[in-house]
From TrEMBL, chains A, B:
Designated name of the protein: Monooxygenase
Key words of the record: Flavoprotein, FMN, Monooxygenase, Oxidoreductase
Pfam family, one: Bac_luciferase
InterPro entries: Diverse_substr_monoxygenases, Luciferase-like_dom, Luciferase-like_sf, NTA_MOA
Top-rank taxon: Bacteria
Similarity comment: family membership: Belongs to the NtaA/SnaA/DszA monooxygenase family.
A GO molecular-function descriptor: oxidoreductase activity, acting on paired donors, with incorporation or reduction of molecular oxygen
KW GTP-binding (keyword) present: no
Annotated binding of FMN, by residue: 57, 94, 144, 148, 218-219
SUPFAM superfamilies the UniProt entry points to: Bacterial luciferase-like
Organism: Terrihabitans soli
Amino acid sequence: MSKRQLSLNLFVYPNGHHEAGWRYEGSEPERVLDISFYQDLAKKAEAAKFDALFFADALALPDNIRWASRFRLEPITWMAALAAVTEKIGFIGTASTTYFDPFNLARLFSSLDHLSKGRIGWNIVTTSIDYAAQNYSKDSHPVHADRYARAHEFLDVVTRLWDSWEDEAVVNDVPSGIFADDEKIHEINHIGENFRIRGPLNLPRSPQGRPVYVQAGSSPDGRAFAALHAEAIFTAHQTIESAQEFYGDIKKRAAANGRDPSQVRILPGISPYIGSTEKEANDLLDEFNDLTQLEYSLTHLRRRIGVDLSGYDLDGPVPRHLIPTEGDLTEITRFKLIVGIIDREKPTIRQLMHKLAGARGHFVFAGTPEQIADKIQSWFENGAADGFNIMPPYLPGGIEVFISEVVPILRKRGLFREDYEGNTLRSHFGLDRPKSLYSEAQRKSA
Amino acid sequence: MSKRQLSLNLFVYPNGHHEAGWRYEGSEPERVLDISFYQDLAKKAEAAKFDALFFADALALPDNIRWASRFRLEPITWMAALAAVTEKIGFIGTASTTYFDPFNLARLFSSLDHLSKGRIGWNIVTTSIDYAAQNYSKDSHPVHADRYARAHEFLDVVTRLWDSWEDEAVVNDVPSGIFADDEKIHEINHIGENFRIRGPLNLPRSPQGRPVYVQAGSSPDGRAFAALHAEAIFTAHQTIESAQEFYGDIKKRAAANGRDPSQVRILPGISPYIGSTEKEANDLLDEFNDLTQLEYSLTHLRRRIGVDLSGYDLDGPVPRHLIPTEGDLTEITRFKLIVGIIDREKPTIRQLMHKLAGARGHFVFAGTPEQIADKIQSWFENGAADGFNIMPPYLPGGIEVFISEVVPILRKRGLFREDYEGNTLRSHFGLDRPKSLYSEAQRKSA
């Protein structure tokens, strides 16, 4: 058996992850909606043998749009247009179980998996920003528990829809005139709290059977959900200890659910600032932080910790006593992470804003290519990660330098593939292709 | 001013429009979900300077899947993957106002229009098949009037969302750090019977301002809706007289609504069977009809006219007295069209099934390339059509022969473009780019 291999995703964010990335000289902010810009990125990541591109999403425009390009192409259409010009790399797109309809979502992702020939993952979210509700005719954003209850039922339904055609259902027998064996196409006849759906899906089973199930919530409900359903988990940690705790907990919960823990890939985010010396890397990070805009940063901070610090001395300490003991429950995990930074590092308000400017609470690391490769290797080999979501501060340069400087080191150390072994995202992640719940073999073994 | 020009769309249907198209020797049924098959088609249609590819949709699997490939890739993802490999041709995709959420639909189509750089049209449907409701947690399919009431409100909402960023809202000024002029980004604050939506959309205004509004219903409600909103109309007629009545009625209604009738393109469907002689063309049509399967054809007929004729002599007359005076109201227009065929042509049951096998009630015409060009020219020049949706009986050959044999004749006669004049679907159709409802100029002129 070959050595355990890292997964590397490129997390595509408009103009890069640093909130002022669009102002950096190597950035191309005028191309933020130009599909050819992302097609070039996808081809570069594929040439470097990355597992996948990852796309976040938001269902409402944030109120600080004046200061940065905080919008994006819609992930489902975006992935389709990138899959069309690539052959191997995967695409993981975010879509909400709270604000999508399960039949529509099942169809969109099945179609994506068909047209990409098996390279799609679904990042399953319940949507944390509460003002999304106002774009969806709802009186209020559902509370955490209700969102997760709906998400569990949603997963059950779409899984059955994706499985509703057995793999052998399409016969395509021209002489007899029989196109499909309709005994292998199943109504799902779901009747639940949130949904009533007959099925079958109006598409045959897709190349991967189902898209890869990806998840990114780290709340207690999120962890329970991930341990049941997720095949890859995107997660934010500031320290290896925190990542190790998460990694161990998820793998243990998955095993307790009767799952093979190797079938759950854990992928923390890392935003790398790369210099030929440590000083050069730190100077680069400073250069980005000098481009931040106070109004944007303060708004972002207020949204994350629930208190407006605009009247305070920015170079003084964070007024810890003003911060509520519990933030808005919809983003409690990120709130706790930020409070952890405050308690551990005692930053000034400005330092805290800069800390969050890089990647909204994800791990920001400035160093030489060797230092970054060391950090990745250390987390990978010490029970903290199966791979990483790479979050470049700006685009396209931020990922180009990672590919040209860091990837060769990882490859030399035997940690990252020389070439793809297969053609699907499941293959890149080392995940099994699931049998249909309705297949005879599956019914017998159940 | 140059001579009035035809529009030509390729209406892409799985394996072609004839219900037995997948069994024809030139067909490639094993590629019905292979995106490269459709990418080749799109490139061929673009090389021939077609206006657009047109995609129908259905939100549930029909019950005669055993006998034909009556499913398709999902149109939104499908269009994105085709736009990615073409530069000029447009794409018109069907999506339902009854079973989509307006914010999700507005975003998906805005994203499509951005990534295609202005080549997208939306075929607005309210969904006619009633069993779709069972895939969407509804007790029953809403009645015609309720569907159209929702559709009107839906159109109002998505129009405002697409207009919610004025064209000049993105400033992208790196030195000042101002990314967007937020005074040019507007909440829509819609509160209606069906929807409550704050907005703005989380994407800037798209290249065409709004996707092209396309419509395909010919019921009284459908005509009223089209005359208010549609910029292109796809319609089914068996005779030039019927098409002329429709054409005249719609243009008159549009004018009565204060619209320029030239801004409403009327595009009947035509399914051409092409032979080097008239006999060869008719033999080709017979060859297709010989491939039909009785079970499929009878099921289709039952669904269209509301009565099961499987116990009757197929070579005897259609038992006219058994047919209800009014069909299921959700498809009343197509029902009336079929009753019209029965009363006008007095076909046997088998002849009627063959008539519908070609294109489900659309105009099927067998002839030489000259005869087909004559027919197109006659409808175009006599107030029956501004262009056509070409519905090839099988793929890819059915469109290849149209392009190689019929298009050059139309071009020689000065009826069809030698090359594209612009890069957007609005340009191909000769449609204006609408101003944003929220723009200052628009507000002043209103």
